[in-house]
Design a protein that fits this description.
Blueprint: E1 3-6, H1 11-16, E2 21-24, E3 27-33, E4 36-37, E5 42-43, H2 46-65, E6 72-79, H3 85-95, E7 102-107, E8 117-124
Parallel strand pairs: 6-7
Antiparallel strand pairs: 1-2, 2-3, 3-8, 4-5, 6-8
Helix pairs in contact: 2-3
Length: 129
């Protein structure tokens, strides 16, 4: 089985030697992703905008892998501040309406106090068709 690496072009991936996603067969494993805009190296403001940007980042990685958000089967979510839960979950619910992947949510201290949300995901290419 061939292993293919997906990059977002993020400075973090280059500096710390990891991939945004790896494709192995029809499986796509997406690394922990935040609300950074990799093109501008800026972090979106607030939990809502960070979550929206996070999903843009994941959609881009999935597209490079030949998948879409409809193919996501598992999400692990790390929320830095419990008061952001409802805001984040509203974006999550709109994004995954009708897809309904499995989901684990934990409150966690993230490496940068400005980061409100991080998610990693597993997808199976063509699972959503």
């Amino acid at each position: 089985m061939t292993r293919r690496h997906i990059s977002s072009g993020s400075e973090f991936e280059r500096t710390y030697s990891y991939s945004r996603a790896i494709v192995l067969g029809n499986h796509v494993l997406v690394s922990g992703t935040t609300g950074y805009n990799y093109a501008t190296s800026t972090l979106a403001e607030g939990a809502h905008d960070q979550t929206v940007q996070l999903f843009r980042n994941v959609e881009s990685a999935l597209a490079q892998a030949g998948a879409t958000l409809k193919d996501v089967i598992r999400v692990r979510m790390y929320i830095a501040r419990p008061e952001d839960y409802e805001t984040i979950m509203q974006v999550f619910a709109r994004t995954f309406a009708g897809i309904d992947p499995t989901c684990t949510t934990v409150q966690a201290g993230l490496f940068d106090p400005a980061i409100r949300i991080e998610m990693d995901m597993d997808a199976a290419i063509n699972a959503g068709t």
